Amino acid sequence: MIDRFILPSLSLALSEAPAVCLLGPRQSGKTTIALGLAGSRESLYLDLESEQDRSRLAEPELYLERHLDKLVVLDEIHRSPGLFPVLRGLIDRARRSGKSDGLYLLLGSASTDLLKQSGESLAGRIRYLDLSPFFVLEPTGKPVDALWLRGGFPESLLAESDSRSMRWRSDFIRTYLERDIPQFGLRLSAETLRRFWTMLAHRQGAPLNTSELARSLGADGRTVGRYLDLLVDLFLVRRLAPWHSNAGKRLKKSPRIYWRDSGLLHNLLSIPDMESLLAHPVLGASWEGFVIENLLNAAPNGTAGYYYRTTGGAEIDLLLALPGGKTWAVEIKRSLTPRPERGFYQACVDLNPDRRWVVYPGKDRYPLAPDIEAVSLNHLAIELRNGVS
Fold first, then answer.
1. Which residues of the chain form CATH 1.10.10.10?
2. 3-state class (DSSP) for residue 232
3. DSSP secondary structure string for all residues of 6-40
4. Domain 7-130: CATH superfamily, name plus number
5. Rounded distance, CA 343 to CA 347, Å?
């Protein structure tokens, strides 16, 4: 088992809260982490996709009441949102008997219904943590280029070959299109959904234009908007919001859209290996999305990510609003001789960020100007992970 960076936070949460909810996309490693933690204490694991396990919960209060002395792991909890009122009562009962932490570990692959239900019934009793697929600081033994090409899903990244990784991702996408997505009420055909996913892949890093997507898909804008919302809630797509605090400038206001996992992006665009990626028009946008996702995963809790662009051309690829009010500006370049664009300098004049970085694919760290450093993705991720200075 590869140690995940979330483990200390998860262990701490279980020691402080009655219920902890670990959210993340399917196959990102939630179950492996949960079983590893459960193995060190008295525990019970229930998979709510299993008919057998669901049958045990025909009378959930009676069944779970017998296990208040254990850590109960409920996998794919979003499939049984009706359990939340039951858990609320059991947590309150356990508190009255003197047990107030480490009762339930909930695992979910979607945040939509889950967050709605928990907001109604488990407020003050639950802590949320997000788990991404592997990111650049986790000890996978794979180089950065492999992580970029294959993405961070464990089965994809750790596959014996690029071709086997590609096949796994194809199966993963097909399962989502044919089985998982329809369960959330969207009745588009799998073929139409795949077209939509592929259109988003071709627009990696571009501003969202719902009307254009709707015309290309042959659907109305509201349907496209609902579907995009679902992909965001399934942790598959990121909407990077525009920075909006500079009232004196005319700013771009549409969010930028990125596939969060670069491996899924490359699969949708039929990019099987590094040679094909280096020759593909999506190269720069793919690298940009990969860097953004890794830096946001490495950043301290409470960090928000934005982009900044004015109609006059001032631009910052990633603006990190860090806890405590500091801002870091990040320019992302796919070149071994990176040079910030004029728009980056102008944007820094507009916003006066506390730190200014250029992330590039090399290994050395060196100044480009008195207040701008060129760094590798690993270097900047470590800066963020070890504490903001």
1. 144-386
2. helix
3. THHHHHHHHHH-SEEEEE--TTSSHHHHHHHHHTT
4. P-loop containing nucleotide triphosphate hydrolases (3.40.50.300)
5. 6
Please name the helix (run of DSSP H) or strand (run of DSSP E) that holds residue 210, with its range, or none.
helix 210-217
Cα separation of 278 and 286, whole Å?
10
Residues of the chain within CATH 3.40.50.300 domain(s) are: 7-130
Residue tagged 């409470």 (tokens): 302
Query: Would you say how long the chain is, in residues?
Result: 389
CA–CA separation, 19 and 83 (whole Å): 13
CB atoms closer than 10 angstroms to residue 316: 27
3-class secondary-structure state, position 361:
coil
For each successive 10 residues of the chain (389 residues), what is the average pLDDT? 89 94 93 90 92 92 92 89 88 89 91 58 85 95 97 97 98 92 77 92 94 88 89 94 73 88 98 97 98 96 93 93 94 94 94 96 94 96 79
What is the CATH code for 144-386? Answer: 1.10.10.10
SS3 46: strand
Confirm if 62 and 167 have CB atoms less than 8 A apart. Answer: no
User: In Å, what is the CA distance from 71 to each residue of 217, 256, 347?
Assistant: 46, 40, 50
Please state, in angstroms and rounded to a whole number, the distance separating the CA atoms of residues 370 and 32.
46
Q: Taking the CB of residue 295, how many other CB atoms lie within 10 A of it?
A: 26
- Own/partner contacts of 299-306, CB < 8 Å, gap of 24 or more, are 299/384, 299/385, 300/384, 300/387, 300/388, 303/384, 305/240, 306/240, 306/241, 306/242, 306/243
Q: Phi-psi bin for 76: left (phi > 0), alpha (psi -120 to 50), beta?
A: left
How many Å is the maximal CA-CA distance in the chain?
66
Cβ contact 357:333 at 8 Å: no
Residue 69 is classified by DSSP as T
Q: Rounded distance, CA 389 to CA 381, Å?
A: 13
